[in-house]
Design a protein that fits this description.
With 286 residues, this protein is of the alpha/beta class. 32% of the residues lie in helices and 20% in strands. Helix 1 links the parallel strand 1 and strand 2.
């Protein structure tokens, strides 16, 4: 049964335990406490399970761990498994290497309205700053403007504007029908709207464009885009570039969706009930 006011934060991860630990720490600092966390694990090893288990004993809110076997990057499918395990009426998708400031959940709750999804943005940390944050357990998500300004001047972060909090009002709806630039590292979608389009399309494998596919189909279903900039920005820890060898194939898939009329995923939420037993997601919760 879903909670009318409960928010589900679906955090994707794969074999990056130090970043996941920092991301969960940042979520532990949220001012809005009416949410659950679902770690959507794309086939990590036992160390990731241990990180999740350690936080399950410390967090005063539900923390679930959903995983499937690793068979290459399957971002769309593992997010679908996270959606299936979630209990909230609003799903916020967050990457496991993103640090959310304390008002992140509260800002998404404030911006949410029926018939709209919210796209957030991020600040990229340099390799050197990322290494320092992780090795010293620095709570970068708590840094105020002055500290972030210092890091910007030193080259530790790539921009500063997303740290500002501005009441944009109707300006947030200027790009209501645009799918370009929306990313699942910071995206909030109502569960009912995800169900309408059958979630992410699991036919996308390898890095890239499964998030664009989702947004195109949301817009086709009549759900409009709302801009979360200057309200929901997160800090993104550096990582080496992802393998993009499957990007041309994924681009072809996306071009077909953009040029067509299809609403539902080819291999979406409804396909998971027929998943082979050896690949069925495991769910562990507090």
């Amino acid at each position: 049964m879903r909670g009318a006011d409960l928010i589900s934060v679906i955090v994707t991860t794969y074999n990056r335990e130090d970043a996941l630990d920092a991301a969960l720490r940042a979520l532990a600092h949220q001012s809005d406490r009416n949410f659950e966390i679902v770690v959507a694990d794309d086939g990590s090893g036992a160390d990731t399970a241990r990180v999740v288990a350690s936080w399950q004993t410390r967090l005063p809110l539900p923390l679930k761990h959903v995983r499937h076997e690793h068979r290459g990057f399957r971002g769309g499918e593992i997010r679908n498994r996270g959606i299936r395990a979630s209990s909230g009426e609003l799903c916020i998708f967050l990457d496991g290497d993103c640090l959310a400031p304390a008002d992140f959940i509260a800002a998404h709750r404030r911006l949410h309205e029926p018939g709209w999804f919210v796209t957030g943005n991020r600040i990229l940390l340099s390799p050197e700053l990322t290494a320092a944050v992780l090795s010293r357990a620095m709570e970068a998500e708590r840094w105020r403007f002055a500290a972030l300004l210092q890091q910007r001047l030193r080259g530790g972060i790539n921009r500063l504007l997303p740290t500002l909090r501005l009441p944009l009002g109707p300006l947030r709806k200027l790009s209501s029908t645009s799918w370009q630039g929306a990313q699942t590292c910071n995206l909030a979608v109502a569960r009912r709207d995800l169900d309408r389009i059958d979630g992410f399309d699991g036919t996308y494998t390898g890095w890239g464009l499964e998030d664009s596919d989702l947004v195109v189909r949301l817009l086709r279903a009549g759900v409009r885009r709302k801009d979360g900039r200057f309200a929901t920005g997160v800090l993104h820890l550096w990582h080496p570039p992802n393998d993009r060898s499957q990007l041309p194939v994924n681009q072809t898939r996306l071009d077909e969706v953009v040029g067509g009329s299809r609403l539902r995923a080819l291999q979406g939420l409804s396909a998971l009930s027929d998943a082979p037993a050896r690949d069925a997601a495991s769910v562990v919760q507090q």
